Amino acid sequence: MKAIVIDQYGEKEVLQEREIALPIIQDDQVLLEIHATSINPIDWKLRAGYLKEMLPFEFPIILGWDAAGIIAEKGKNVSNFEVGDRVFSRPATTRQGTYAEYVAVEENLLAHMPSAMSFEDAAAIPLAGLTAWQCLVDFSGIKKDDKVLIHAGAGGVGTFAIQIAKSFGAYVATTASEKNMEFLKSLGADMVINYKEEEFSEILTDFDIVLDSMGGDIQSNSYKVLKPNGKLVSIAQPPSEEEAQRHQVDAGFVWLEPKGEQLQHLAHMYETGELKVVIGKSFDFNEKSLKEAHALSETHHARGKIVIQIKK
Fold first, then answer.
1. Cβ within 8 Å of residue 285, ≥6 positions away
2. How much is the pTM?
3. What domains are defined for the chain?
4. Is the pLDDT of residue 276 over 90?
5. Residue ranges of the Enoyl reductase (ER) domain (predicted)?
6. How far apart are CA 148 and CA 166, in angstroms?
7. How far apart are CA 285 and CA 287, in angstroms?
8. Please, what sign has the CA dihedral across residues 251, 263, 15, 297?
9. For residue 183, which phi and psi values (nearest 5 degrees)?
10. 84: helix, strand or coil
11. In angstroms, rounded to a whole number, what is the distance separating the alpha carbons of residues 18 and 16?
């Protein structure tokens, strides 16, 4: 099968197209023929070597942790999925990722795709959608009428987080550049702050939840908008315990746990129209396109998700 691999850490040039053997599945896995995958910041952060201590994989490494496709084969213990099913997944974090024509996936990490869902939309949801869900629902316990600040609302996690928060009946503020303000209002944001012209921490007060995807000073300033016992959840860097205690805030860092059950819930939200997928750009599956896709993701200014079409 065709795959894009890396044999060393480095710039986007280390991405190499190669023919490799098909994965061999275990009894609790399926062999998924991938029709689409997507790019997430973890991909290029791992490629550049920033995560080598957290994820000490041996080379060669196939990056990518989003997949949508058709089940080509199933293990003997797989009971809820059949060969031919259209499914999507955030597979386990291994060195056998989804920049490939096939991937092995555990049954409990799979979800059925609604009939109206395209492979491209399905590939855009898992990592970013589950991250948003676990930040807002699992960690923060979001509820109706909560006031929620979502940083970088136009990004992959941000676009899903806004919609998930609105589905719970929350009031949502978000930060963005001027060009994305109307777009984010169309997703349901109640207030969009132009971060180039306004300082969010001087405008917002008494918020219940902040989803921090930026870290640094933005994370530190986020405490100022929270009420006592509010929640600050970060996907950028672990918050300082001392800072959280000083502001009487419950702060934590979320590292995604793949869960097929939660992904099935997001599929239901898609089906009911509560969740729309925003694809900023789509690329073909080849070495040159993957390098371009990584370069776009590294700008931090991609709108929504970057999708790779593997099988057309």
1. 2, 4, 99, 308, 309, 310
2. 0.96
3. 2-125+277-309 (3.90.180.10), 128-253 (3.40.50.720)
4. yes
5. 10-308
6. 10
7. 7
8. negative
9. -60, -45
10. coil
11. 6
